[in-house]
Amino acid sequence: MTQCHHRDEAEAGGRATLTLEAEPLFVVGVLRAWVAALQPDPGAPEWRQIVALAGLPAAAATAFGSFMTLVRQSLRRSLDVRCCPCPRLGRDEEALLRLLGAMQCGDRLAALDELDAWLQPGNLTPALRSAEALAAMLARHDVRLARPGMPQPAPAADAAAGRVLQ
Q1: pTM > 0.90
Q2: Is 98 within a domain?
Q3: Which of 145, 4, 30 is nearest to 88 (CA)?
Q4: What does the alpha-carbon distance between residue 82 and residue 31 come to, in Å, rounded to a whole number?
Q5: Alpha-carbon distances, residue 113 vs 7, 92, 127 (angstroms)
Q6: Which keywords describe this protein according to UniProt (predicted)?
Q7: How far apart are CA 137 and CA 64, in angstroms?
Q8: What's the burial of 125, exposed, middle or buried (CB within 10 Å: 0-12/13-18/19+)?
Q9: 3-state secondary structure of 16
Q10: Residue 29 placed within a domain
Q11: Per-residue pLDDT at 164
Q12: Span 91-134, pLDDT tens digits
């Protein structure tokens, strides 16, 4: 694997990767390995194995791969995704965490804002649907990216409770 060139840059930017909790660190690790697989780097970790080692089903890897492939095919600019050993987060790695956290909270507008910075306008709706599927899959397997201060989704209506009229 190649040496991280961000280690030597005075202005590498981004927060330290090691400050992340387990769930966001997992997502960033999978993202970096997915990007590394696009490069001729035989030492890069296999991103699907990372997903499997975390105990997630193959469907989670499929959801991640589908979302990222859709993003890659419709980018309006290059994304700031760092190499696997980089000690700092890239701005688009942070954006992916915000996007998936927003989707897990049911905040589609915040997720759309993140996608809008990345994608051509005609591809926003399919990418939003794909991000929603990925965020739901991650949440079902306890990979929660929503944090305090983020809006929480409204509780599901309980049909047995009836309606409240005011």
Answers
A1: no
A2: yes
A3: 4
A4: 9
A5: 30, 13, 12
A6: Membrane, Transmembrane, Transmembrane helix
A7: 9
A8: exposed
A9: strand
A10: yes
A11: 35
A12: 999 999 999 999 999 999 999 999 999 999 899 999 999 999 99
